[in-house]
Amino acid sequence: MIFKQLFDKKSSTYTYLISSGKGREALIIDPVIENVAGYVNLLKSLNLKLVKVIDTHIHADHVTGASKLKDITKCATIMGEHSPAETVEIKVKDDEYINLDHLKIKAMYTPGHTSDSYSFLLDNYLFSGDTLLINGTGRTDFQNGSSKDAYNSIFNKLLKLPEETFVYPAHDYKGEKVSTIGKEKKHNPRLQVSSVDEYIDIMNNLNLKKPAEIESNVTRNINLGA
Fold it and tell me: Which pLDDT does position 212 carry in this prediction?
């Protein structure tokens, strides 16, 4: 399997490229529009054909490269069925599988950060979007976010996965690249709570600034960055 973790410095976004091998089909998760040329060059260098692009949710801090990649490669665009993006070609349901050659990627509906947030599981690789971060969790104060939903998504879905499952988030702001479910259970400060009410209280008192270009980014991302 080919697996590449790519980083956008401006938005601290991780983008993931997956393929079963050189010369085969490829899939990209959470592309950033400014980096599309780099993705295309990487695909060419590995002799890969991009067939699918997934966005884990409607992003607020960057513009997706999904439409631009579709224009260049004719790939299919994929999001969860709760996405407000009407131009998405394939909307997957909770527990539905996405096929890539012989690889199978499971869609998991994990709302909370936003109402349309999905995570994606490939074997023991969890692409958790903004739902579960390394030593953190996604904020819940815009785009129909819900701390209660986030708690349920994290504690009753993601943390039920085997502890050795690798966690690959959509963002990291401190240089961390990967964690595991076991490490997050033990060390993530947001997860050391005894109840949903305690989690909601933590999330309600983060007092974070909103992303600088949230309105224009969300508007463009509802159109897949077009």
Answer: 86
User: Is it the case that residue 215 has pLDDT exceeding 90?
Assistant: yes
pTM score of the predicted model: 0.97
Task: Give me the DSSP letters along 150-212.
Answer: HHHHHHTTGGGS-TT-EEEESB-SSS---EEHHHHHHH-GGG--SSHHHHHHHHHT--PPPPT
Q: How far apart are CA 148 and CA 41, in angstroms?
A: 42
- The more confidently predicted of residues 138 and 207 is 138
Domains defined along the chain, listed by start = 2-212 (3.60.15.10)
- In 21-143, the DSSP E strands lie at 25-29, 49-54, 76-80, 90-92, 97-100, 103-109, 118-122, 125-129, 132-133, 136-137
